[in-house]
């Protein structure tokens, strides 16, 4: 895959900007901002999509398929880390000597004059970013933002606002979150991930320490996650108690959290209270799951850290209705409901399925798991098997979605299914139509089906629904 030079000096004028892989959730959001600021934007993607159609309506010229001719008269190329070195547009840009920017470099350049709130962490970034943006709008603010998923109530993943505040989901997967000139940093957790890039847990946590120390105003960080606790200890070492308290706000269920979340009720939409400066504030979200109460506490900590009134902040957070691909209902056939979720790490899978359990009632949970990345599947096969078996009643494991990685010998979805303690609870079915037919044969009224993964597993949903219709027709 491409490893862009993150030390590259970015030209003062980017001119005409061409996005390779423009349809992705992150890339499309950044492209939208460039269009909003009057830039000429072109792009390419492997397939058409609603994101591509929306960008065309805003004036972007988007090609389907990758070809050197697509670059046209572009002055700057913007790419993702998922691109391959032999991409013809990338090759031509290098031959021409054009600046080739990682998407985070392009975004950092675009927002360099703003007061930046950066949301990072192995899980919960998209939801937490959406909560902060939704709350700021509810508080009468007009922030700019780029999120990793479409905010349901807004119908977009990015927008240009009139205020100085800019909220971004900051991607730690390749270290590019260190490019931003962050004022307020929110760290949802430092759960080990992306070790294919960092090489070790120590290097992964060191990147979050660096991200924290770069924040010019405030760090908001989990008090429950063990990795985050280690990061907090490092960044507060040597500071006076008053100085550390002024610079760092912790949040979570830990008794000594600066913002302590408690009294969580997970039956249906989650209800909870947060304790802040001797006062309790309560809310009920529109979305389920204990993890979302924790996410809301982090968003609350950011808002009060920015100076907003606590009760109004929590009320505004409660208006958040979710983001696409986060426990998103796609249809119900014969009493069987089919949801899709972006969860692709064991901790995320556990959170998504635990949230489903709170609202499924007497029905069962059937997980359709698409392993993402060969390296992650190899490293976490046992952890995936454990959480799937513990939180779902039945699991269907699909083939690995390799994304930016080449296949590894012996690494398939079977690595996960073979690690179940009870083989009758799981089936490895790499062919999608076979998987849909198998699901239809085992599902019954009241069940929740949840597709899980950050690859293209959401594209199997129509097949699942069609198979359910046929089985019940």
Topology:
Blueprint: E1 17-20, H1 25-36, E2 41-45, H2 50-57, E3 61-64, E4 76-79, H3 88-96, E5 100-102, H4 103-110, E6 115-120, H5 125-138, E7 144-151, E8 156-159, E9 165-169, E10 182-187, H6 195-198, H7 201-214, E11 218-222, H8 226-236, H9 241-247, E12 248-252, E13 259-265, E14 269-276, E15 279-288, H10 290-305, H11 310-317, E16 328-333, E17 336-341, H12 346-359, E18 365-369, H13 374-391, E19 394-397, H14 414-417, E20 426-428, H15 432-442, E21 448-452, H16 461-472
Parallel strand pairs: 1-2, 1-4, 2-3, 4-5, 6-9, 6-10, 7-9, 10-11, 11-12, 12-13, 17-21, 18-19, 18-21, 19-20
Antiparallel strand pairs: 7-8, 13-14, 14-15, 16-17
Helix pairs in contact: 1-4, 5-10, 5-11, 7-8, 10-11, 12-13, 15-16
What does this structure look like?
The chain has 473 residues and is of the alpha/beta class. The protein folds into 3 domains: 17-103, 3-Layer(aba) Sandwich (Rossmann fold), CATH 3.40.50.720; 113-319, UDP-N-acetylmuramoyl-L-alanine:D-glutamate ligase, CATH 3.40.1190; 328-471, Mur ligase, C-terminal domain (Protein-Tyrosine Phosphatase, Chain A, Alpha-Beta Complex). It is 36% helix and 24% strand. The protein contains 16 helices and 21 strands. The chain has helices at residues 25-36, 50-57, 88-96, 103-110, 125-138, 195-198, 201-214, 226-236, 241-247, 290-305, 310-317, 346-359, 374-391, 414-417, 432-442, 461-472; strands at residues 17-20, 41-45, 61-64, 76-79, 100-102, 115-120, 144-151, 156-159, 165-169, 182-187, 218-222, 248-252, 259-265, 269-276, 279-288, 328-333, 336-341, 365-369, 394-397, 426-428, 448-452. The strands form 3 sheets. The chain has a 10-stranded mixed beta sheet, sandwiched between helices. Strand 16 and strand 17 form a beta hairpin. The longest helix has 18 residues, at 374-391. The mean pLDDT is 91. Residues 17-114 form the Mur ligase N-terminal catalytic domain. ATP binds at residues 121-127. Its main location: cytoplasm.
């Amino acid at each position: 895959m491409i490893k862009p030079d993150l030390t590259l000096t970015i030209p003062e004028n980017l001119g005409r900007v061409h996005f390779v892989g423009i349809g992705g959730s992150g890339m499309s959001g950044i492209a939208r901002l460039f269009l909003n600021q009057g830039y000429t934007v072109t792009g390419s993607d492997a397939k058409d999509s609603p994101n591509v159609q929306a960008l065309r309506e805003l004036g972007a010229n988007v090609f389907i398929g990758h070809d050197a001719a697509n670059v046209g008269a572009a002055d700057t190329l913007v790419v993702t880390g998922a691109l391959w070195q032999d991409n013809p547009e990338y090759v031509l840009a290098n031959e021409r000597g054009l600046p080739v920017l990682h998407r985070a470099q392009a975004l950092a350049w675009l927002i360099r004059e703003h007061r930046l709130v950066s949301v990072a962490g192995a899980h919960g970034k998209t939801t937490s970013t959406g909560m902060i943006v939704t709350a700021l709008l509810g508080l009468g603010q007009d922030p700019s933002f780029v999120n990793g998923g479409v905010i349901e109530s807004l119908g977009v993943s990015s927008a240009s606002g009139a205020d100085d505040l800019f909220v971004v989901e900051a991607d730690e997967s390749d270290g590019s979150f260190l490019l931003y000139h962050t004022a307020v940093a929110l760290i949802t957790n430092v759960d080990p991930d992306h070790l294919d890039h960092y090489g070790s847990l120590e290097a992964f946590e060191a990147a979050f320490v660096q991200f924290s120390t770069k924040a010019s105003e405030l760090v908001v960080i989990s008090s429950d996650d063990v990795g985050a606790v280690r990061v907090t200890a490092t960044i507060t070492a040597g500071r006076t108690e008053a100085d550390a308290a002024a610079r760092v706000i912790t949040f979570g269920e830990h008794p000594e959290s600066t913002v302590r979340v408690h009294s969580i009720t997970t039956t249906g939409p989650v209800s909870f209270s947060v304790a802040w400066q001797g006062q309790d504030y309560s809310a009920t979200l529109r979305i389920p799951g204990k993890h979302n109460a924790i996410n809301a506490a982090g968003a609350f900590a950011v808002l009060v850290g920015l100076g907003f009134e606590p009760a109004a902040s929590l009320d505004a957070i409660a208006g958040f209705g979710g983001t696409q691909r986060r426990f998103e209902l796609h249809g119900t056939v014969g009493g069987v409901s089919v949801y899709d979720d972006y969860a692709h790490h064991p901790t995320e899978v556990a959170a998504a399925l635990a949230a489903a359990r709170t609202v499924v009632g007497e029905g069962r949970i059937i997980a359709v798991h698409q392993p993402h990345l060969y390296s992650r599947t190899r490293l976490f096969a046992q952890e995936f098997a454990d959480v799937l078996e513990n939180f779902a009643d039945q699991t269907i494991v699909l083939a690995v979605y390799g994304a930016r990685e080449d296949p590894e010998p012996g690494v398939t979805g079977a690595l996960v299914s073979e690690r179940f303690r009870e083989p009758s609870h799981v089936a490895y079915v790499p062919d999608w139509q076979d998987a849909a037919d198998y699901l239809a044969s085992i599902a019954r009224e009241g069940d929740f089906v949840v597709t899980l993964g950050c690859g293209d597993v959401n594209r199997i949903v129509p097949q699942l629904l069609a198979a359910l219709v046929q089985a019940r027709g």
